[in-house]
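Notes from the 1:1 (GR / supervisor)

We went over the backlog. Supervisor wanted to see one worked example end to end before approving the batch request, so GR pasted a single chain during the call. The sequence is below; no edits were made to it. Supervisor asked that the structure be written out right there so they could see what the output format looks like.
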Amino acid sequence: MRTEDNDEAEQPPPAAGEVEVDEPLENLGLSHSALPAALYLTATPIGNLADITLRALEILKQVDLIACEDTRHSGRLLSHHGIRARLVSLNEHNEARRIPELIAHLQAGGRVALVSDAGMPTVSDPGQRLVQSVVAAGLRVETLPGPSAVLTALAASGLPTVPFYFGGFLPHKKGQREKELLAALQREATSVYFESPYRLVDTLGMIAAAKPEHRVVVARELTKKFEDFQRGPAQQVLSHFQARTPKGEITLVIAPAELPKWITW
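Structure output shown during the call:
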């Protein structure tokens, strides 16, 4: 999961053993790996660096290039696991230039892993346009499953898990956000959203104003040291965060319009 509001200080350069590629990709050549040529969509930890699959580690060791949302962030993950890799950035600012380079590399028999800062690439994260372009070019795409903030929050929410609706980040604009939340309150499925800590109290206030007893779950800092779940009626959860400034990455889970009888909290 990416953080929508990034107030972090400038991050350090890639850690020792990581190489960020600035030169044209056609100058890099191919590795001698027996790995099939493909784009490998690789899920990465949403917090705890140990939450990465053995298969993902093996793939990241063998590919020619790793396309990252942020090379500095991914560099720390790779260094933690002792992986030396060539990293290239892929984000909304450079994808128009970068995607044709990556397609050409794949067409030449290359192997590219795509990672985001956390979770599954393309799911509220960069990479959709690259995957579309790879598919359109008739090239191979493989997915390596792994951590997901959406499923982690949903599974531990105590709310119905099937069916569920994922809406990505809630809208910035108040009117659009309120419209989306009202739709969630009427939906026959559990709804899951990402939300900024800076807007969480306002968002919970909108829910509580419409249905103060409607069940919600705020999952914060999933898999990290200060992981926290606040479950209960919207008004109760709102009061909790009015008294404590919310921090960290937040996933909001909203109960369906009608709760099953077996849910008693």
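Supervisor's comment: The domain at 18-144 is CATH 3.40.1010.10 (Cobalt-precorrin-4 Transmethylase; domain 1).
Batch request approved.
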